[in-house]
Structures are given as C-alpha cells and as structure tokens.
Design brief:
Elements: H1 2-21, H2 28-36, H3 38-48, H4 56-65
Helix pairs in contact: 2-3, 3-4
Length: 70
C-alpha cells in the first residue's frame, strides 16, 4: 500500500514540476483574479501566508499577497 501511495505522490510531484516549467501558462494569481476578482484573491493570498515564510513557496505567496514581483 505504501508503494502505491509513493507512486501517486511521485506522479503528483512530476506534474507539479511540469506545470511550473510551462512558460506559456497564465500565472496563478491572474487566473484567480479572473475567476474571483482582485479583492477576494488578495484576501485569499493574505490568509495563506505566515508571518515569517518558512519555504521559498511561502515567500512567493507572501510577495504575491503584497503585490510584489515574484
């Protein structure tokens, strides 16, 4: 059972990396703003961040919430 779960996780990780390398893809923040509007997107991103980011991903979320360049 663990091997099956590990294989699913590996496939998910590969898909995530593939999406991040897709240069033609519209940024996530832009897609969210289109679907939800700028105000709700800003609020959502602000709630996802911590006071002190622990990972590069959390740092990028913090910058996005504040409208800084990623």
């Amino acid at each position: 059972m663990t091997a099956k779960r590990g294989a699913r996780r590996l496939l998910w990780d590969c898909e995530t990396v593939g999406r991040s390398l897709d240069l033609d893809r519209i940024p996530a923040r832009t897609r969210l703003e289109t679907e939800l509007g700028a105000n709700i997107t800003g609020l959502l991103l602000a709630t996802l961040r911590e006071a002190e980011p622990a990972t590069p991903h959390e740092e990028s979320l913090r910058r996005a919430a504040h409208g800084d360049a990623a």
